[in-house]
Amino acid sequence: MPQDTTGEAELEVVGVAHGGYGIGRVDGRVCFIPYALPGDVLRVEALRESKGVLWGAIAERICPSPHLIEAPCPCFGDCGSCTWLHFAYPAQQDWKCRIVRDCFVR
What we know:
Elements: E1 3-4, E2 8-12, E3 15-16, E4 21-26, E5 29-34, E6 41-50, E7 53-63, H1 89-105
Parallel strand pairs: 5-7
Antiparallel strand pairs: 1-6, 2-6, 3-4, 4-5, 6-7
């Protein structure tokens, strides 16, 4: 059963999961963060914990990813339709290939 978790932590995003969630670690536990990109250094607010995995939200982007661009849509982040509009396209292609490759390896 998911638990509400409070607190903040600083982490570096090291990857992207299926669905566009950035992946980092807090105290050795995996943390999924929406709208986070590989290379971001973030202050993350922990929102909940489920099955040993943390789910967080960006409280502050301390050092932005080199792949971060300005999203061309004014609704980005609000409507929930597009999760990677702020991700430079060549980097998107690379990470999407990694995600698919990882699915076959597993």
